[in-house]
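Batch manifest, entry 17 of 40.
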Amino acid sequence: MKEVWTLATEPAFLLYAALVLSATLVLIFHFVPYYGHTHIMVYIGVCSLMGSLSVMSCKALGIALKLTFSGMNQLIYLQTWAFALVVVTCVITQMNYLNKALDTFNTAVVSPIYYVMFTSLTILASVIMFKDWDRQNPSQIVTEMCGFVTILSGTFLLHKTKDLGDNSSSVTSLSPSFSSRSSKHSSENGCTAEEIPLRCQVSFP
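Output type: structure tokens
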């Protein structure tokens, strides 16, 4: 845990954590009261920012529990409990504002935007804290980024094409009225529904 704590207290990650906390506090105390119910990015921004810190703390806490179960007790270090406190605080804040976003806006809109922002910030935090890319060659990094862009593209397409079903249903809902008008005009011109349309003169206004 001391090694993980050393990674968490490096200047680069401390700067990232300070920026995240500052942005979160500004969103909570300034933007949420005025724009929370009208702009979806306010709630999702808080969830994503706090989520990136919670994932890093969960990873550190998972390492501590794994070492503890293997015989190397990590619960005696204050760093372990510090990470646990960060996890609890971030998760409570994250779930609180995520529920507010789901109560205020459409779930089909909240889910893809939250997924994209949360994943992007988590990858950034992981690169800064654990230096994941330092142990990988350029081809591996490019492959990972291509996979990430593919996932984001799929999420974007799902979000954009979700209204196609609504459009088709609206067209379907118009068809009964259209058919009723057709039947009305057909009856006025002496045609029945069983007759072949080509044999019947139907005029529409």
